[in-house]
Amino acid sequence: MKKRFLILSLIFTMAMTQVVPVAAAREDDVQAEKAETQSKLSAAESKESELEDQKNALLNEIDSIDQNLVQVMAQIDILNGEITDKESAIGQTKEDLAVAEANRDKQYEDMKKRIQYLYENGGSNAWAQMLLESDSITGLLSKAEYTEKMYQYDRDELKKMKETVQEVTDLGNQLAQEKAELEEMKQAQEQQQASLQSALDEKKATASDYETQIANVRAQADEYRSLIEQQNAELQKIQEEKARQAEEAKKAEEARKAQEKAAQEAEQKAKDDAEEEGTGQNSTDVSSNDSNTNDNTDNGNEATNDNNDGEEPEDNNNDVTPPAEETNTPNYDEPETPDNEEPEEEQGSDSGYSASGQAVVDYASQFIGNPYVWGGTSLTNGADCSGFVQSVFSHFGYSLPRVSDDQAGAGRGISYSESRAGDIIVYSGHVAILTGDGGIVHASNSAPYPQGGIKYSSNALYRPYIAIRRIVE
Which of 358, 384, 464, 473 is the most exposed place for a label (fewest CB within 10 A)? Predict the structure, then answer.
């Protein structure tokens, strides 16, 4: 009967060891997919931030171009006003020039008439005639002076008229030149306006393209966030399934032990009944025949020895499910190390060298039975779970973070199916060292050993884990 229970237990254990690694492998795959998705999300968010910065820089450029364009358009308006004024001045100058030319021409015509009169009424003898007709020398001089003044007046007026015409002509030329310069300035401003407008249109088109890119990146980031939510949901289901399997395994193990204990008790009772029956028979044989009594006694002893051969009581201490105090302990969340407490260096420590994972387990196992101390790092006087792991690996020259959440990022991540002795397993708020036989050595809780303290537990999967990390390669 006992052998049958052992076979059933073996079959159950093999079935569980097949189910759990499959769930662990899928969990590792989802964790890897989630990490990749988070990396893509970070890249998308970084790209979105970069595009936003570029868009903002472009909008600043657009604002600057807008301001320059407004100034250029204002300059063009001013130039248009000045050109209009010049055109008005040029028109007035042309009118003045026409008046001056008319005056000049009239003065010239008058002078010609007077010269013609003198010539026609005196010719070359005009002075002699004027002398003969004069009553006195005074009258002669007066007439001569008058004639000279008339002649000089005509010459002076004609000269003034010519100067006026020249001044008006020069002013017209100057205004025309100024107008040409204003028109050149206006043309340059219009070219600048066209250039600015073209640059502005291009910048606005680019800004619109940035908005499209940003919208696309945001949509992609939203997809990544949605995917992460799905992956988190799947991880949650895996964790719940693993917890359910662990609970079922615990109940099944308890049932198996109960059945095994019942079988052992039944077997022991059968042995006791057989011994009592053999004793009664031997007593009867002794009363009838001493020699037969001796033979039967020998045979009974031999039968007893045959029944007890190779069936010593089993030691179940190394293959038990952790007690309820361990699985339900409230002390998984760990504190920071006090400022005045450094990880304790144990005797025989030789920091700076690496070792095998089994050597780590052997070293850690030396301290089984020592107390659990919240916030402690002493392997002898007491440590919490992360302080225990930190101090053990410190002995071999490995520097690990102080708290379990940070230790989840130490070393190299592996799956549970790849794990071996010396790897660390990180739970939510707890951490332990895998022993390679499906168990762990860890600092559990403040309960007295073996329920708490630094201890060995046979089932590393007694609760869902977050990560498996390899420190010793």
Answer: 473
Asked if 440 and 425 touch (Cβ cutoff 8 Å), the reply is yes
Cα 386 from Cα 430, distance rounded (Å) = 7
Task: Going residue by residue through the chain, which has 473 residues, state the pLDDT in tens, using 9 for 90 and above.
Answer: 555 555 555 555 555 555 556 667 888 888 888 898 988 888 988 888 988 898 899 889 898 888 888 888 888 888 888 888 878 888 888 888 888 788 778 777 777 776 666 656 554 455 555 555 556 656 555 656 666 676 677 777 778 778 888 888 888 888 888 878 788 778 878 888 898 899 889 888 888 888 899 999 889 889 999 999 998 998 898 888 888 888 888 888 888 888 888 888 888 888 888 877 766 555 545 444 444 444 444 444 433 334 333 333 333 333 333 433 343 333 434 444 444 444 444 433 343 445 799 999 999 999 999 999 989 999 999 999 999 999 999 999 999 999 998 999 999 999 999 999 999 999 988 999 999 999 999 998 888 898 889 999 999 998 889 999 999 98
pTM of full prediction above 0.85: no
For residue 329, give the 3-state DSSP assignment: coil
Beta-strand relationship, 440-443 and 382-383: unpaired
- The CA distances from residue 149 to 112, 134, 135, 142, 160, in Å, are 15, 18, 21, 10, 16
In angstroms, the Cα distances linking 92 to 80, 178, 265, 276 are 18, 15, 136, 152
